[in-house]
Amino acid sequence: MRLSKDKTTLAVNSSLTLAGILPETFEYRLGNRSALEWVIDQYRVTEDARSGIRSDPNREEDPEYIIRLVGQVVRVSVETVGVVKSLPKEFTRLPT
Q1: Distance of alpha carbon 88 from alpha carbon 54, whole angstroms
Q2: Which of 14, 53, 79, 83 reaches 20 to 30 Å from 27, CA-CA?
């Protein structure tokens, strides 16, 4: 999976690209990156050079899994950002 430079589209594979990713998606952060960026990083097909063990997060029995996951992560991210923005100011200040 590869995110476009403007972060509005996600190329899942050579024949599937998801478009219309909202900017708010990237405001919801898990540490130093957004939840969607974390999923993109974790859901890569990799192969260990020494052992040859291949890690493929795609599910043959459920080929639409990754699409649903990306949709859920985008939705939760956008809705969480909306909830946080709607909180009264006293709830959004960090303690000193």
Answers
A1: 48
A2: 14
Task: Quick: pLDDT tens for 50-73.
Answer: 998 888 777 778 878 888 999 999
The model's pLDDT over 73-90, given as tens digits with 9 standing for 90+, comes to: 999 999 999 998 998 887
- The DSSP 8-state label assigned to residue 36 in this structure reads H
What is the model's pTM? Answer: 0.79
Euclidean distance between CA atoms 66 and 64, whole angstroms:
6
Query: Going by C-beta distance under 8 Å and a sequence separation of 6 or more, which residues neighbour residue 76?
Result: 28, 35
Q: Which helix (H) or strand (E) holds 67?
A: helix 65-86
Task: Confirm if 10 and 18 have CB atoms less than 8 A apart.
Answer: yes
